[in-house]
Amino acid sequence: METSDALGSFIEGILFEKGADALPQEVQDQMKQDLLERVERRINIAMLAAMPPEEVVNFEKILDAGSDTAVQAFVARHVPHADEVIAKELVEFKSLYLSA
Amino acid sequence: MEAPRKQKIKIAIVERTHSVKENARDTAEARLTENADQLKGFKGFLKKLWQHNYAYDYYRQKEITKAQKEIHELERLRETVADGPEREAVESSIRAVVKQFTSEYAQYAVHKDAGEKRAVLEDTPAEKEIKKKILEMVQEYALKDMRDPQVREAFAIERKAIIESVAAAKGEVLDEKAGERNRLFADNLEEVVWQVQAQVAHGTGAELLDLEFEVVAGRARSNVRTDQELKRVDGLVDRIQSSKVGKFLLVNEATVAAGLGMAASVGVFGAKALTSRGAAWASLGLTALVAGGIAAVRESRRMEKDRSLHSREMAMGKKIEPGQKRREEMEKTRYETKSAGELAQRLETSLVIIARNQPPGMTLEQRYVLFKDGFLALAEVDDLVQKGNEEKKDYIHFSNPQNIVKERCELDVLRAQLRAAIHGTLSTDSELHSYVTSSTVNAELVAQRALVRGERETERERKDALFSQIKDRKVFKAATVGALVGLGVGLVAQETMAFFNKNQMGLIERLTQGKPVNPPDSVTALEWVRMKASHLINGEPSYMLMGGPVMDQIGSNHIRMPDGFSLTKVADTVTLIRNGEVVVSGLTTDRDGNFTDAAKDLLKKHDIALTGGPHTAINYIDTTVTEPGKRVAVRTPMSVGEAVQDYAERGDTKTIKRELWYDNNTPKPVFDKNELRLWYGGPNNTGVNAAGDYVYTVRGMRPDGSFHGPHSANAQELMRTGKLSLLLSVSKGTQNQVFEVAIDRNGQAIIPRDSEVARLLFETDAKGRAVFKGAFAEVAQTMRVREDATGVRILATQVGEDRPSVPDKVTYRTEDAITRRVTREETIRWWDTTINVPADPEVDPPPFIPFIPRTPLERLRNPDPLRTPVHGPSPEEPGHFAGGYGYERGSGGMKNDYTDLEKVYRNTQNSQRMKELVERLKYEKDLRVKYRSVLNRLKELEDFENLPARAQQVFEGERLQHNKRYNTDYSLSRFVDMQLDRTYRQIENIFIEESKVGGKPFAEEFYKTSPLRKGLERADEVILMLDGPVGDSVVTMPVIMALDHYFKQNGTTKQITVVSQHNKALFGALETQYPGLRVVNLAEVKALVQGAPNRERFVINADKTYKDYAALGVAPRRAGDPGYVMSVDWNSWLMEEAPREGKLTKRYDMIPQRVMRNLELMTGQKLFEDIKKVESFIGKRADHTEQVERLRTKYDIQPNEKVITISAGAGVQPKEYAPERWEELLTKIFAEHADAHVLFLEDPSAERRGRYASLMERLKTRFGRRFSVGKENAEFINPILAMSKVVVTPDTGLGHFAAALGTPNVMLILGDPIQWSEPKTIRVTHAKAFENYRKRTGTYALLWDQKWKSGYYIEENGEKIGASSIPPERIYKRINQVLSKP
């Protein structure tokens, strides 16, 4: 899956609150892209951290061989409260970004 | 005949990208640890907040990048530099990997279960081509100069191409995909070139044609095993981010949406969306909860990470320093690890036991016991290795990070060897084999193995549970602190912002600026708390709404209320309502509508106050008024007649009829008598009196001056009776109408100045005299009053000027009436009342600002090789150290005539004499039994060549272990020779140990030929030349003690002369200690020698530079004769071992103990009862007691005070303790020991005195009498140090001197802590000290490097090293131990 549209809106919101809407569109686009990558990375790290350690080895195998869908299915199966994990990451991400 | 098989050269090309990345991470994470003292103050708080918490990931990544860069730079160095220390740093780890993959035990050494892979290049066409290229390259470069930079550059390119081709051919056993950048390999291609070059150099060149290679490819996992959570995550995320499908999320859109929704519900989409305060409070609570939760999650993850990091670092051999609380806590949860060295030793021991030919006659049970020990040892090590690999945990720790591969590989080799030995034993001992494989025994073995596993499992569970407890506690604390700190910071921020918000009142704003006139719309949370507290204490609300827009009226009371309030009259009472709810009811009012006192009390109970009171006002009423017309005078000129007529009509005049003139019978124009007596009155008869009135007087008239005919008038009488009057005629024509003025009893007639008569008839002239302007002024006697006229008789007449001032005629007319409007004022009385209700400003939730600091793990000390495994000087090489003091023997003025003590004076170099000693050991029954193990070992060593292979294998194991421990590379034959020498020395020691004091246990031949004994017997005088440095001299003191014992035990007396070139005064007390001994300087000894040139002398020259033996009384031709001269220095004395029963040995390693035992061995005589019990070598002065008395008085040292003497100076500055560190230490001592008196010795060097001057001044100011600066000459140093309870020094001469006196000396040391010690030395060691001990360098050579001479620290590999690195707490601990003793 490519970048989530919802995440894009989330990032746009953060940029708006940061006052970046006054910047040239080109700069905004770059910032958005950068923040998107960061937030995605954070979410991915959080997902891996939330995964039972014994499953990480299996996950590596899936990652090597499986499709995106298979990877996501695996994560969904082994990180049952993924929405909470994401929420926490987003809250923290936004808090950090806006306070920086 | 079959041609000899060519030896295949093994080439390894092993990818270690993964390991290097792990190294970088380890380095990065280790750099992000910090000790508590680095986290103090505000700066420390910020670091904990930022570097160790919020930005941890950033800093970690930065450090990883930096570490990777450093590693790659080192790798590049390897390509360009042929040798040198920098290259060696990389090369050693690469060599270890190559050795691991090319070892004959590679199948064991390569850990597949840890992810390592290994494959050999086969004979497929492609792989054959690679081998061919390798051959060509080796052949080519074997003939080139590999030190030439151009050659190296070309070689690097070819090497890289070969590695890439191997990587392509054997990609399945490597880490990365082909084409990846920054891949790192361990290979021995260059080493092979060098090796072939060496062969060619010693051969014919044909060697180049016989080359044959075995090429091994693989990937290494060279690090410790504990998996770091983040490390794995790092790797996976990297893979995800760079995957072929591009970056993607691990979750689908729906999950992201759910997360976003949840985040939105806790306000993540910002305060802009929050419209109500309630929502803001809800958001605060949720945000705090989430932030607390985040802190908890973060802490949980970091705890896991910390545990992993700690386990990894400990497995690398790092050490916890005392007081590192987080580390100590973490250590409790670390799985137990076994030292790789100890495990290797255990395997070696088992290998020795199993491989060695068992003595004949051993029972099956005895053989089984030996077998079982080996089997279980192997099983345990196998378990530790395998489980560690599988579980990614460390159950084995290593001596240091650089040795991991090497130690692991050696362990693997030993495992393989022991396994082979066990199989070999079972294959040759069928009885044992049957026994072991029997079900009962097998079950026992299995059970025992399971027991060990079970214990380990239990230990793991216990530690996991403990970790969970600690983690839960920390996580809870982090969550709580996270929420509280976030709230706290938010409260402060809110207070600050309140200053800028006019609608919000903050606590600080309220306290500093007072109560505002109008209540604020809202208050901060802290102000809200103050409001509530104030209300509780004072009973009054903080803010009031003073009235408001709502108006009502009861009677004459006008009532004002805040918005939302209203009054309702119910029956006779009033109810106050707010927003439809009754606030107060039953309020009574008086007839004017005012609230009664009862009503006011009722309101007060609800914090409602009334203000206002009675008022009066003027009411203005407008009316219409008609006024009558004014009467207006109208003036018209009048004639005299008209005027007189007018007067007459008004009654102002009187009509008269002159009936008679009393002319005194003299008609006119004669006038006489009273006729002439009408005069003007007033002053000077001016006719005007003081009041301005006009005055006439007739007082001058005589009673008989008026008559006419018969008629007469008594003027005076008439005056008195009021019957005379003055008649004024206006004009002649009107003389019958006159104004009448009464004449009073005094004869005066006064006409008031303002009267009509005066205006009409008089005026005053310029001289102030009256002027009569009428016609006649007559004095008349009124006679009869008739209707028409009054009859009068005239007594006198004044004729006037007849020009009366006739006034205008005045007539009056009335004007018309006027009508106008008039405003009338009317006073009105009423009341106003304001109902003031308590204001209840909204309380704004503070923002939640999650500032949460986190304390990282403390930095571990670098591995201490002394402890695991124990190193130190090799018993096989007990002698000279590699360096020390930065000098080399024979260079730079150093002497080079050292006597080889072992060779010249000992049995060990004489095989015959050693043989005799060995024989005696064998034939003396008690000794034979007691030292059986020594004899057995000696036998094996002497007959090594004929030992069975398995027995030889034992020595091979020992050799490996030795090389590993002491970083040497001895061959087996060399090792065996060394062991043989060691055993001979041990046997010598046995005989000395077993002898009684004074005993001579060696063979007679020894005593007949010993050059030392002969020299001492020959000499009349023994001259001991001390070395220059005080410390070097002090460690030589046991020589004097040994000589003294020697001469006494042998019943002889010899002159001993001690020469100290620079410190004669310091050693003066030796003359008291050894009567007859003299201490002299060089000039004195020369004079003595010249005075007795023929005296026989034996010289022990311990000075490193002194070479002039003639000056000491030894002829030059005898200077090299060990019977005349023993030339040594501190580094000459050998460490000795005395075996005891079993395998234990007693070591003599301190220099003083070495000296004593060496002299025993060299003289062949037991000189000391027990060397280990000799604690002092220098005695006190003869006048010690008096000196102590003097010193205590001089420095005001109280009888109960314990003296702590400090000598801060040292020959080289990095040995010294920096002034600020001394101050910290002394502050602690004075604080903890009220009876401490510190005597800080003033240094003889002006430079050092300068450096410590301000410190001493400060300490004197701070501690007063209890701190003294000792200023004494050298001869009094002895009593000062001897009277001290403890002496604290750097590694310097006076410290050794104090310890040699028997005074405990706490010494800060960077050199070999064992060798450079006296029995009374209490060492506080720098980490370098252990390194020097391990390396057998004795001292830390860089201390003498000129580069560092002006500072307290040396910088080595980026680390600051110096005695000042030692924390004061460690030193204090040692001092305290001494002071606490009685």
Write the layout of secondary structure elements.
The complex is a heterodimer of chains A (100) and B (1382).
Chain A: H1 5-18, H2 25-50, H3 53-65, H4 68-78, H5 82-99
Helix pairs in contact in A: 1-2, 2-5, 3-4
Chain B: E1 9-15, H1 17-31, H2 41-54, H3 56-80, H4 85-102, H5 106-109, E2 117-120, H6 125-141, H7 149-169, E3 185-187, H8 189-202, E4 213-219, H9 229-241, H10 253-265, H11 277-315, H12 325-332, E5 338-339, H13 340-355, H14 364-391, E6 396-397, H15 404-428, H16 430-437, H17 439-498, E7 504-505, H18 507-513, E8 522-523, H19 525-538, E9 544-546, E10 550-554, E11 557-561, E12 565-570, E13 573-578, E14 581-588, H20 597-605, E15 609-627, E16 631-636, H21 640-650, E17 654-661, E18 679-680, E19 694-697, E20 706-708, E21 711-713, H22 715-721, E22 724-729, E23 737-742, E24 748-751, H23 756-761, E25 762-764, E26 770-772, E27 776-785, E28 790-799, E29 809-814, E30 818-838, E31 842-843, H24 901-905, H25 911-923, H26 925-930, H27 932-942, H28 949-966, H29 972-994, H30 1004-1009, H31 1011-1018, E32 1021-1025, H32 1030-1034, H33 1037-1049, E33 1055-1059, H34 1070-1073, E34 1078-1080, H35 1082-1091, E35 1097-1101, E36 1125-1127, E37 1136-1139, E38 1145-1148, H36 1151-1163, H37 1184-1194, E39 1202-1206, H38 1219-1232, E40 1236-1241, H39 1246-1263, E41 1267-1270, ...
Parallel strand pairs in B: 1-4, 5-6, 7-8, 8-31, 11-30, 17-28, 32-33, 32-35, 33-34, 35-36, 39-40, 39-42, 40-41, 42-43, 43-44
Antiparallel strand pairs in B: 1-3, 2-4, 9-30, 10-11, 12-13, 13-14, 15-30, 16-29, 17-23, 18-19, 19-24, 20-21, 22-23, 22-27, 25-26, 27-28, 37-38, 45-46
Helix pairs in contact in B: 1-3, 2-3, 3-4, 6-7, 6-8, 11-17, 13-14, 13-15, 13-28, 14-15, 14-17, 15-16, 15-28, 25-29, 27-29, 33-36, 37-40, 38-39, 38-43
